[in-house]
Amino acid sequence: MSSEFVECQRGAEATLSRGTYLGKRVLLKRRPPKAYRHPHLDSALTKERTRAEARALIRARAAGVRVPTLYLVDLQRSSIYMEDVDNGITVKDYINKIQPKTEEESKLDSLMNEIGICISKLHSDGVIHGDLTTSNILVTPTSGNFGKLCFIDFGLSHTASTIEDKAVDLYVMERAMESTHSEAQRLLMRLLAGYLSHSGKAAEDVFKKLDQVRARGRKRTMVG
Amino acid sequence: MVVALGFEGSANKLGIGVVKDGEVLSNCRRTHITPPGEGFLPKETAKHHRDNILDLLKEALDVAKISPKEVDVICYTKGPGMGAPLVSVALVARTVAQLWDKPIVGVNHCIGHIEMGRLITKSDNPTVLYVSGGNTQVIAYSRKRYRIFGETIDIAVGNCLDRFARVLNLSNDPSPGYNIEQLAKKGKKYLPLPYVVKGMDVSFSGILSFIEERAPELLKNNEYTPEDLCFSLQETVFAMLVETTERAMAHCNSDEVLLVGGVGCNVRLQEMMGCMCSERGAKLCATDERFCIDNGAMIAHAGALLYQTAGPTPFNETTITQR
């Protein structure tokens, strides 16, 4: 069956292929073994992540956040069959493509706000994404609008409800944005505002923790 | 043509080297070695540096066959590192700069490692994994700056290994990490340990607590040997490093990895990184202990580059910083 699948992307950890499953256009995500890792560690990690990803996709959906629909999990082959999001492009590409001073640019603030709200929804239901970046959120742009958000790549996700986990999750996002987008700080403020608007009081504790987590990042301000 | 004299003393290694336009003329080093079971402390390390620095300076100049007159620029480590050792070395660098009337340049220790690695391996635009007793960072050059893509959120990987060496009471000569590496080669039985990767960041303190807590019991029951534990620890923490490096490579579409820092001379880490690289069709650039471990030549080389592009550091800014 997988012979009909065509590889479309090779990430650090998994390969993505497109094909058909039960008459539907699907994305097949496979985690090939890593030869550099000890076999025990490799199979444990692969299983754990495939399972965590499938679980998180279901939980995220229940939390009201759009994610690809899950069709099949094959733990033996560490494969997940899921919906291939129509016209989805990553938020990273979307931001990079935007022309300055256009209508789309003014929509960026509401996009970041929306992302903040979605992350808050995930956190409220105990879903920690674990690898939030602008490459792991899709948008489906239609003329002048970013369309619907879709969160992907839950491979490093876990369920937790501690403030620490939520703060670190936001911190990962912050770091990823700083290294990819020139206007990261402004965008991030918007994102956090969205998070606050949905989480309310709970967000204040998370932000307090976030300050502590930032302080742990040790040497990045040093300029020689 | 620039002849640069570099002073390094941010941790327990004191290094002085002379570099002439990318050619290493001398690279001398003294290491402050503590008894088994003990780490090095700022005060004693600074004393070690003070006791050795003048002899080492003379040796570095003699080996390079260079007189103070021929030196064009004095370079020293501004940070990051331990305060007291940094100060003791910066003080000597500032003094000779004034005595010999030479310009002085403060160098970021991490950039020293990266530039030296690039010089030795001739890599062009690599994703850098900088791993040592004090630092664990995945760095890439993007938008005109070295940027940290991922790093440890608590202790450095070298610190994790060193502190486990103390649990096993291993010798600190030549370094605790080296002795762990030798034991790990004979380890067979794998003990599953926590594996902590958060995005591109890693964390080691939980792994250390986990293995510190269980090691005495596991050894007493003869379930695992010290070799097995060293092996398991290395396999786990190195897998985390290789994974985050690979993620950074995928993120920046990079096909070169440069491995620098003291832990970078661990052969098992080089092997694992090489394996990941060949799976991706990428190239691994690694160096040996002369340049991986803290040294003066790297500070001289990075300082010379800085001097040629940005000029000297104003004397009143030749301070140090621990961060």
Offer a few descriptive terms.
heterodimer, A: 224 residues, alpha+beta, Phosphorylase Kinase, domain 1, Transferase(Phosphotransferase), domain 1, 2 domains, five-stranded antiparallel sheet, three-stranded antiparallel sheet, 6 helices, B: 323 residues, alpha/beta, Nucleotidyltransferase, domain 5, five-stranded mixed sheet, 10 helices, 12 strands, globular
Could you give me the name of the CATH homologous superfamily of the largest domain in chain A?
Answer: Transferase(Phosphotransferase) domain 1
Average pLDDT of chain A works out at 89
CATH topology of the largest domain in chain B: Nucleotidyltransferase, domain 5
Low-confidence stretches of chain A: 219-224
Element order of chain B: H for helix, E for strand: EEEHEHEHEEEHHEEHHEHEHH
Helical segment count of chain A: 6
CATH architecture of the largest domain in chain B: 2-Layer Sandwich
Radius of gyration of chain B: 20 Å
Name the chain pair with the biggest interface and residue counts per chain.
A-B, 36 and 48 residues
Count of alpha/pi helices of chain B: 10
> What's the architecture of the largest domain in chain A, going by CATH?
Orthogonal Bundle
What topology, given as strand order, has the largest sheet of chain A? 1-2-3-5-4
Instruction: Tally the beta strands of chain A.
Output: 10
CATH superfamily of the largest domain in chain B: ATPase, nucleotide binding domain
Overall structural domain count of chain A: 2
Q: Report the sheet with the most strands of chain B, covering strand number, pairing sense and barrel closure.
A: 5 strands, mixed
Describe the strand arrangement of the main beta sheet of chain B, using strand numbers. Answer: 3-2-1-4-5
The SSE string of chain A, one letter per element, is EEEHEEEHHEEEEHHH
* Tally of discrete structural domains of chain B: 2
How much of the sequence lies in strands of chain A comes to 15-25%
Q: Give the overall form of chain A.
A: globular
